[in-house]
Amino acid sequence: MNPLKKILFIVGSLRKNGFNEQLAKKTEELIGDDAQVEYLDWSKVPFFNQDLEANLPVEVQEVKDKVRESDALWIFTPEYNHQIPGPLKNLLDWLSRGAPSVLKDKKVTFAAAGGGSGGASVRDFMMLLLNQMMMDTMSMPNTGIQIPMTAFQTGQLEIESYPLNQLKRQVKAFLDYIA
Question: What is the mean pLDDT of the chain?
Fold first, then answer.
């Protein structure tokens, strides 16, 4: 019997209980016992500064080690002005640096909760970015969740049946992809 694969979740918003964190928790629930899920705490990663690369900040080394130890990554990203949030891009910049990069050939997928388009723009951008970073990106399916206006009042992300079915397909496909 093969050991469980370790999937490291990267939630692209630092906000506590944000919509993408809720999406990640739903995804973890759908994965169940089929893989080991861990959440990356990257809240203390400093702004990228090439002057710091020779002597990496401990916070950067810790997140690089977590990524290196994982079998795969699942990134959950909000859509800010049709792009990924600056802090998430900063994290990915740190992770992509150094030889060899901890991201090179790392299996990855992504999902987004955002606006009326379900994060369509940010999902397109993520595909380009992750491929540019030479990651082993599962291109399809990826899930976009539209955040209804009521969610901004309640703070709760309610996932309707169609996107939930998309997410279930993505979970199954990714588990097969990393097997």
Answer: 95
131-137, Cβ contacts within 8 angstroms, sequence gap of 24 or more: 133/92, 133/95, 133/96, 133/101, 133/103, 133/104, 134/101, 134/103, 134/104, 134/105, 135/73, 135/103, 135/104, 135/105, 135/106, 135/107, 135/108, 136/105, 136/106, 136/107, 136/108, 137/108, 137/109
User: 169 is written with which tokens?
Assistant: 């397909």
Domain limits at 48?
6-178
Average pLDDT over residues 100-110: 96
Residue 53 lies inside a defined structural domain of this protein: yes
pLDDT score, position 1:
59
Pairwise pLDDT comparison (43 vs 117), residue with the higher score? 43
Q: For position 167, which CATH number holds?
A: 3.40.50.360
The model's pTM is 0.95
**Domain membership flag for residue 1:** no
